[in-house]
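Annex B, item 7. Sequence and structure tokens for protein A, then protein B.
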Amino acid sequence: MRKPLLLLTVINEDSCLINSTIREFFYKYHTDLRRRVALGQEYQGKKFQEQEMYGLIYDCKLERAARRKAIQTMGGTLYVPEGVVWIDFTGDYRENNLLAALQIGLDEQVKDEESSRKATTEKGSMVERSDEREIPGAKREALL
């Protein structure tokens, strides 16, 4: 029996820094990618092997902890805490639209072999090193 293809959960929503429009964008992007991976379809020129991905859980307390960690480490070596994804992309976004920029940035991550492998494997994560001390109750089920 297959896992359900849609699991959208927001926990600690009263603590969120990112507004619901952006969170919903991430949910939709992740759900579409998850569906394509489950069906072994192509996306952004990459053919995925048919497999299951975890659903997305958005933890607003984890979001705040990740922001604190990012602020502390700006200018130095950034060790991304487990359960946190750091999406880094640059470009000229003439549309002046954050969601269009996010679409481009996430698509670039999918095209990157290592990033897409980590994001689409059940036990994978898009983290380089683990540092959970400041991330209580980190969720490892949903990484993108």
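Protein B:
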Amino acid sequence: MSAGVLAALALLALGSATLSAVTGIGGVLLLSGLLVAVPTVAVVPLHGAVQLAAGGSRVLGFRKHIRWDVALPFMAGLLPGSLVGIGAVAWLAAISPSVLKALIAVTILLSLTVRPKTSQTRPAAQALVGGGQSEAATAVTSHRLLFVSVGMLVGVLGIIVGAAGSIVTQALLTAGVVKEEHIATKSTIQATSNLIKVPLFGFALSFDYAEYALPLTVMMVAVVAGTFLGKRLLGMLSTQRFVFLARALLFLVAMQMLVAEAARALDLV
């Protein structure tokens, strides 16, 4: 890998981690950069390894805001979903590498069909402030099955396409988990997902991470720096701007990926 490509990946990792710490979205930007820089079969495992470092740093930086009542049901579905995904990824790659790229963009766009309830944000937290313990418990319980189900879906898609964070974002926004709580909780879920995914690629699919030791190290350092830069910027956003920016970024990234893949397909015709 040339010095120019390495520098570009470092800047992209820094930018994506900063965005992730501000909006909860940014990993897909790094994913799209890796799609250009490395072979398709290496994209998801490398993305997972870098995102493990990024997610771990966000968990550390936002640890006081983690919503464990939301994160734990998500995490319960991750392992079974990941095991299903690891069985499907080799089959999909054997059909066509383009399938992986198309699935990434389609997954993001589908997640945008669910509109967040911004007028009822943080229902459980608001109920607790008002002294309504039973109301808070009801708000969390009503979404628990959703969290477990989405956790399983995230496990599958995280292995196959590496872009499952968009699904988590929409589920958390729908449940009214925003700003610091959103970043902290999503990071906890994704760090757990990547902690499962990274060794699965190494043991089950024999992916050699050592071959990419230098770019991995550089990108990991960059994402940790981006996390703490983004944390300082997050306080400047209102809840409404946070939700709008998160959804706008999801749409733009997905469209860029679809357009790029369509252009590549037309060149082959």
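Comment on protein B: The first helix runs from residue 3 to 23.
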